[in-house]
Amino acid sequence: MLGMEQLSLEDRNAVARARRLERFLTQPFFTTEQFSGMKGKLVSLKDSLDGCERILRDEFKDYPESALYMIGAIGEAKKPEAKQPEAKKPEDKQPEAKKDEANKPEAKQPDATQPETKKSNENKPEDQKTEPQPEAATAEYS
């Protein structure tokens, strides 16, 4: 299977037109409202054919495929706004000590799978608390 970069420019344009046309033909239907959560739209045959012809004439070449997905008539397609270059944010200048603290690995938390050395009754309900067991007395016989 070939990738887009291996196609000629003419073939890439044909694939892009086909993909935009495919997205446009994926219109929200009334019968699928309960599954998609999108309100169905009634589009006349004339409007659908007009949209297909306009896509094939490359009138929507500058539109992303997603602008044509799940719309009704072709007039609902929204052209993306031109992005303005973002202003560079000044670097976060922290004192070196704070940077070092930020890069330190966090203290290792106790592993929940390991048994605790001493079990406490503090967090247990009253009916589950146990009395401390006396250590076994060792009797010395002489």
Account of the 3D structure:
- This protein is mostly helical.
- The protein has a domain at 4-75: Bovine Mitochondrial F1-atpase, Atp Synthase Beta Chain, Chain D, domain 3 (Bovine Mitochondrial F1-ATPase, ATP Synthase Beta Chain, Chain D, domain3).
- It has helices spanning 9-24, 33-36, 45-56, 96-103.
- The longest helix is centred in the N-terminal third of the chain and has 16 residues, at 9-24.
Corresponding CATH superfamily of the domain at 4-75: Bovine Mitochondrial F1-atpase, Atp Synthase Beta Chain, Chain D, domain 3
Query: What fraction of the residues are assigned to beta strands by DSSP?
Result: under 5%
Helix percentage range? 25-40%
The gyration radius over C-alpha positions equals: 34 Å
What's the helix-strand series?
Answer: HHHH
* Large-scale geometry: elongated
What is the number of E strands? 0
What's the end-to-end separation, in Å? 92 Å
What structural category arises from helix and sheet content?
mainly alpha
Mean pLDDT, as a whole number?
77
- Counted by DSSP, the helix tally is 4
- CATH T-level topology of the domain at 4-75: Bovine Mitochondrial F1-ATPase, ATP Synthase Beta Chain, Chain D, domain3
